[in-house]
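hiii so um. not sure if this is the right channel but i have a protein structure encoded as tokens and i wanna go backwards to a sequence. like what aa goes where. can anyone help
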């Protein structure tokens, strides 16, 4: 019943007349319908940003990061971003490939021979594909990315955590933490300053919630305790907007590398598979859309969607799993999410 009500809410916005589609009215509509969707889904707190070519065009926060303490969500509130971690890890891999330290076709046994995924290539795990006798097969499995951390370390000479921390410093991502298990990796005085900042950010981290059928949130323990390339990062919509702008403007990686990452591989019979390097790839109204999601059961969820030809990005972070879990997004169809569909119908038509 809940999904049906959500679908009807999304459908209603499609009939807004063109005469009211000025930018301010579109953003007002987006705010109102997102709030309706949030309440129907039972999400305690939600942070949202629409990012343009060079900056945030619109941002808004809904609900509470801590329901018991009545602390409202802000757009700089840190959230668990779970599977979105892999888009940052992929950018680091592409940098290493550009610099000649890694190849996408390197086997992971070169970096982590004990891994159960050691026979896969970097390309395989970033695209969530398996090589079969009849071609590539897609299966979304973020845990396969774990050995990529060792590959990145072989390139940078630092731990995966320190490499991410350095990246956050370079991009001014002051509300981001490279996993809650950062303490063992910080040793010198400069790292102590980082540790103090990370502790401060962690104290503001949105509380994770499990939401029952009655839509009452209950605080829960987030299941992720260790950072890997497939999950564990803490960030805010403002920080992810900074990352997004630098990525799309060629600062993180070259435009050629990004175009390659956003190219869908082909499987058996030549059909396009749904996942490129670090990103899902599909089309909407004939235009490309690249996206990724994160989810931790009874804890958190997140979505990022980029419309390259429109120069727009949607970022959504939530402190329950209801932004993603009901919609089977691992199958590779962004339109299953009423939150993302709302964005596409309002801005990409």
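sure thing!! here u go:
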């Amino acid at each position: 019943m809940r999904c049906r009500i959500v679908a009807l809410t999304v459908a209603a916005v499609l009939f807004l007349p063109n005469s009211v589609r000025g930018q301010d009215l579109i953003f007002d509509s987006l705010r109102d319908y997102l709030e309706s969707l949030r309440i129907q889904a039972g999400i305690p707190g939600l942070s949202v940003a629409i990012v343009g070519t060079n900056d945030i065009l619109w941002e808004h926060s809904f609900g509470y990061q801590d329901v018991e303490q009545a602390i409202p969500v802000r757009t700089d509130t840190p959230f668990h971003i779970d599977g979105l971690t892999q888009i940052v890890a992929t950018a680091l891999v592409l940098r290493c490939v550009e610099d000649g330290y890694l190849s996408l076709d390197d086997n992971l046994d070169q970096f982590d021979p004990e891994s159960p995924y050691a026979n896969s290539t970097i390309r395989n795990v970033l695209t969530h594909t398996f090589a079969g006798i009849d071609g590539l097969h897609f299966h979304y499995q973020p845990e396969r990315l774990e050995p990529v951390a060792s590959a990145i370390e072989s390139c940078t000479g630092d731990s995966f955590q320190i490499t991410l921390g350095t990246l956050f410093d370079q991009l001014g991502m002051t509300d981001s933490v490279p996993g809650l298990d950062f303490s063992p990796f910080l040793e010198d005085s400069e790292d102590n300053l980082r540790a103090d900042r990370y502790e401060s950010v962690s104290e503001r981290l949105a509380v994770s919630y499990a939401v029952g059928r009655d839509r009452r949130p209950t605080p829960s323990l987030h299941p992720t305790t260790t950072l890997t390339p497939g999950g564990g990062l803490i960030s805010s919509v403002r920080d992810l907007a900074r990352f997004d702008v630098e990525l799309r403007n060629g600062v993180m990686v070259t435009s050629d590398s990004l175009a390659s990452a956003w190219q869908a591989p082909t499987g058996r019979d030549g059909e396009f598979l749904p996942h490129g390097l670090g990103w899902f790839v599909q089309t909407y109204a004939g235009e490309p859309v690249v996206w990724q999601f994160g989810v931790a059961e009874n804890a958190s969820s997140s979505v990022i969607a980029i419309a390259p030809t429109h120069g727009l990005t949607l970022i959504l972070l939530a402190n329950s799993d209801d932004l993603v879990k009901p919609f089977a997004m691992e199958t590779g169809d962004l339109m299953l999410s009423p939150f993302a569909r709302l964005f596409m119908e309002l801005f990409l038509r």
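oh and Residues 1-21 have pLDDT under 50 and may be disordered.
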